[in-house]
Design brief:
With 191 residues, the chain is an all-beta fold. The protein has no helices and 11 strands. 0% of the residues lie in helices and 40% in strands. The strands form 2 sheets. A 6-stranded antiparallel sheet has the order 1-10-3-4-5-6, with no helix packed on it. The chain has a 5-stranded antiparallel sheet with strand order 9-8-7-2-11, with no helix packed on it.
């Protein structure tokens, strides 16, 4: 699979103003305290060993932000694991994970519902709820001018995932395909 890494500046209509109906330059990806949903189709290659890989990431620093990633797998594993990590400090974090099949496209919907009575992650695969996190209020991440990255990113050092060191360390760029990526500031459900 060829690797294409994208970085997205959060400035409405400024990249190619001639193609934009609105060139205000205001931030549109920073959800503040609203929900955020990432919807896309994902294909993880068959018969490939891989390390931890970022799918989509937006961090303020190493322990504030959102990361969607694939956990490392062996080439003989029939499936991998997609993880969503949301954090506002090394000890204030939510995470959820779900299996993803290798060798076929599947629909993924990953939501962080930041509304005050919910405050949790929901992961859907092929329109079915696969996982959800516990509940914890996070507040605004304050990304500032930090980029949203697709296919690559930085270590996200919050939470503990079976190792003595906090967070998830990323060793590779994404090996796989993402299609029809959409980002919403609302919750999508199985319907």
């Amino acid at each position: 699979f060829p690797v294409t890494i994208r970085s997205v500046k959060d400035l409405e209509g400024t990249a190619i103003p001639s193609l934009s109906r609105i060139a205000s330059g205001k931030k549109v990806l920073d959800q503040g305290t609203d929900p955020i949903t990432f919807e896309f189709h994902l294909k993880v290659p068959e018969n490939l060993s891989q390390g931890n890989q970022v799918i989509i990431q937006r961090l303020r620093n190493q322990d504030f932000g959102i990361t969607l990633s694939l956990n490392s797998t062996l080439n003989t594993d029939p499936s991998g694991s997609l993880v969503m990590l949301v954090s506002s400090g090394t000890s204030a974090y939510l995470s959820a994970s779900m299996p993803v099949s290798k060798g076929e496209f599947q629909h993924v919907c990953a939501t962080y519902d930041a509304r005050s009575s919910y405050n949790r992650i929901y992961l859907y695969r092929n329109a079915k709820l696969e996982a959800q996190s516990s509940q914890l209020e996070m507040g605004d991440f304050g990304y500032g001018s930090n980029l949203l990255t697709i296919g690559s990113g930085s270590d996200h050092l919050a939470g503990f995932f079976g190792t003595p060191t906090p967070g998830i360390a990323f060793t590779e760029t994404l090996s796989g395909s993402i299609d029809e990526l959409r980002i919403y500031h609302r919750v999508l459900s199985e319907d």
